[in-house]
């Protein structure tokens, strides 16, 4: 019997008896995710923000660092949708381009810190004993550091640039990921499939990253979303304090720095409100997505 005939018979059986084909785990996870209204809302909002920031050179209307002293401190208008700042730079353009910088810093720092956390957590959970003790005590020590103070101090000596900012946020943001991965690996390493692979002579690194880590992906994905949020907020805070993204490169954080002036805070709301709203929407959206991923990928919900 040909493959075409088999397909026709399968289709007839499906239509006649209502046979439903089994869904893949990814399809089931997507179905659960779609039933989470806040997660879907967050996905739509973050998609809009990403499209706006990626397309910034096409829709910015003015170069983000272009000075126009004749148009300084203008309220929102048809020519300047979000108004201008004290030197006439267009707030709409700076908000879009600043979003590109803030999101890149947040995502890059979260990915680097996740990689560090995965490596430390996997080694601690798999080997246990003195390796686990050494890594976890080091993790505890790093967690006791006043992160913002340390980053401010180190950034002062290293100088302000985006690469240094990403590295500093990453080096002080991996600890929660390491603890999460360690706990997951501890519960998986004694499973029968791991013992079987070990009995076949597979190396430790092969067992850890090829057989154990795929089972940690689900909770790790949700953790990464929260790490991105944390990095975006930390960048905004550092830039607000003047140690983050250096001027004149716009970021949501250094745009908020203008709000330190009392007259701008009171009479120039349009200068700091757009980046503040974009940060708020971005962080809330990613939080909602993280909650949806956690619920969708929770093994207890997988049939």
List the helices and strands and how they pair.
Blueprint: H1 3-17, H2 25-34, H3 37-54, H4 56-59, H5 91-127, H6 129-144, H7 147-158, H8 162-171, H9 175-188, H10 192-199, H11 204-212, H12 217-240, H13 252-256, H14 262-267, H15 269-297
Structure commentary:
- The protein has 303 residues and is mainly alpha-helical.
- The chain has one domain (42-301): MetI-like (MetI-like fold), CATH 1.10.3720.
- It has helices at residues 3-17, 25-34, 37-54, 56-59, 91-127, 129-144, 147-158, 162-171, 175-188, 192-199, 204-212, 217-240, 252-256, 262-267, 269-297.
- Helix 5 (91-127) packs parallel to helix 15 (269-297).
- The longest helix has 37 residues, at 91-127.
- Mean pLDDT is 83; it is low at 1-15.
Question: What brief labels describe this structure?
Answer:
mainly alpha; 303 residues; disordered N terminus; MetI-like fold; 72% helix
């Amino acid at each position: 019997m040909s493959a075409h005939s088999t397909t026709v018979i399968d289709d007839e059986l499906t239509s006649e008896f209502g046979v439903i084909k089994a869904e893949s785990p990814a399809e089931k996870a997507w179905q659960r995710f779609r039933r989470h209204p806040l997660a879907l809302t967050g996905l739509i909002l973050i998609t809009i923000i990403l499209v706006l920031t990626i397309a910034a050179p096409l829709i910015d209307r003015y170069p983000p660092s272009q000075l126009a002293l004749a148009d300084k401190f203008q309220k929102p208008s048809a020519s300047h949708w979000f108004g201008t700042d004290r030197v006439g730079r267009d707030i709409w353009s700076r908000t879009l381009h600043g979003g590109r910088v803030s999101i890149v810093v947040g995502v890059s720092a979260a990915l680097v810190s996740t990689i560090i956390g995965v490596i430390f957590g996997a080694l601690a959970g798999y080997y246990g004993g003195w390796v686990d003790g050494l890594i976890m005590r080091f993790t505890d020590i790093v967690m006791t550091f006043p992160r913002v103070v340390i980053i401010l101090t180190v950034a002062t000596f290293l100088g302000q640039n985006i690469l240094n900012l990403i590295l500093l946020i990453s080096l002080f943001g991996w600890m929660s990921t390491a603890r999460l991965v360690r706990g997951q690996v501890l519960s998986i390493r004694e499973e029968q499939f791991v013992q079987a692979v070990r009995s076949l002579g597979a190396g430790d690194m092969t067992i850890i990253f090829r057989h154990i880590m795929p089972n940690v992906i689900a909770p790790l994905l949700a953790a990464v979303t929260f790490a991105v949020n944390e990095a975006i907020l930390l960048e905004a805070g550092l830039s607000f304090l003047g140690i983050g993204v250096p001027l004149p490169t716009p970021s949501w954080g250094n745009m908020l720095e203008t709000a330190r002036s009392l007259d701008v805070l009171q009479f120039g709301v349009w200068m700091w409100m757009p980046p503040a709203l974009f940060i708020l929407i971005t962080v809330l959206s990613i939080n909602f997505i993280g909650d949806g991923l956690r619920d969708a990928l929770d093994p207890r919900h997988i049939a």
